Amino acid sequence: MHNKFRGTGVAIATPFHNEGGIDFKSLKKLIEYQINNHVDYLVFLGTTGEAVTINDDERNAVVNYAVEMVDGRVPVVIGLGGNNTQQIINTIKKTDFNGIDAILSVSPYYNKPQQEGIYIHYKTIAGVSPVPVILYNVPGRTGSNMNAETTLRIAHEISNVLAIKEASKNLEQISKIIEQRPEGFLVISGDDLYTLPILALGGDGVISVTANAFPAEFSALVKYGLKGDFAKAREIHHGLLDIIKAVFADGSPSGIKAALAIKGMCKNAVRLPLVKVNRSLYKQITNIIKKTEEHPLLK
C-alpha cells in the first residue's frame, strides 16, 4: 500500500464550463494526460480541485466519474477533510469507497485547534475510514501548523495513517519527521518548490499542482530524486522554477487553470471567490509554456 504513494501524485484541477458547471469531457482529457505521462497516482477534490465550492451531488459525480475513467490504472485519492470532525465522519460513512485507495485530509482550518485537538481529529477520522488516510499540513491555508511532534505521534500510534503531505515550508520540521518516522510512513512534499529539497532529505515524492500541466517533467524529477540522481533532478527542478512561480503568483488554482487553458486541456474557469489570473500573468504563463515547448526539459 505505501509504495502506491511513493512518487508523483497530482492534485487534479476540476475543469468547469464557462457558465460554471463541471466539464467532465475536459476532466477525462486531464486524467488521460496524467496517466499517459506516467504519474503514480491522482488526487481529486483537494484544494486544487476547488472542493470547497463543490456541492454534495457534484462531489459524488466527480468521484464516480474519476473512478470509472481511471479504471484501476493508477491509485485514486480523494480529498476528505475540513474543520468539522463530525461532518467528515458523516461524509465518510456515506461515501462509496469502491475504487478509492486513500483519502487526503487537511488539518482543520479556521478553528486553530490545539495540537491535542488535531491528534484526536485524525484519530477519529482514521478510526472510521475504510481506506488509509494521508495527513495534509498546510499552515498557509489553515492558519495553524501541525507540528512535528503531533505528526510523529499520529504516525507511530495510528495504523490507518500512512503518510503526510507536508506544505509547511519548514525544512527543519520536515527533516525531523523524516528522521523519526516509523518504517513505511511516507513524507510527501505538498509544495512544488520544495519537492527537490524534501527528496534530498529522504522524502518520498510530491502531490503536485504544477504537474497538472507538466506531468512528465514532474514525474521525471521525482523519479531521479528517488534514485539519488540529484544532478538530473536538479536540472529539471531549475527548468520548472519559472512555471512553478507563475502558477502560484496570483492564487491557486487560478494559475494552473490558466496554464491548462493555454495547453488546451480545459477552459480558464474558476468558481468564486476565486477569479482568473490577471492578463499580465496569463501572458507570462503563455510565454513560459511556449519557451518550454520550444526547449523541452526532457530530451
Can you put this structure into words, describing what you see?
With 299 residues, this protein is α/β, with parallel strands linked by helices. The chain has a single domain (2-227), classed as Aldolase class I (TIM Barrel), CATH 3.20.20.70. Helix content is 46%, strand content 12%. The protein has helices spanning 24-36, 56-70, 85-94, 115-128, 139-142, 148-157, 171-180, 195-201, 215-227, 230-247, 254-262, 279-294; strands at residues 7-11, 41-44, 76-79, 102-106, 133-137, 161-166, 186-189, 205-208. An eight-stranded parallel β-sheet has the order 7-6-5-4-3-2-1-8. Helix 7 (171-180) links the parallel strand 6 and strand 7. Helix 4 (115-128) packs parallel to helix 6 (148-157) and helix 11 (254-262) crosses helix 12 (279-294). It is globular. It starts with 6 loop residues before the first strand and ends in a 5-residue tail after the last helix. The model has no long low-confidence stretch (mean pLDDT 97).
Helix content: 40-55%
SS-based class: alpha/beta
Number of domains: 1
CATH topology: TIM Barrel
- For the residues shown, what is the average pLDDT? 97
According to CATH, the homologous superfamily is: Aldolase class I
Shape: globular
- Run of helices and strands: EHEHEHEHEHHEHEHEHHHH
Distance between the termini: 32 Å
Largest sheet: 8 strands, parallel
Spatial strand arrangement across the major sheet: 7-6-5-4-3-2-1-8
Which CATH class is shown? Alpha Beta
Radius of gyration equals 18 Å
> DSSP helix count?
12
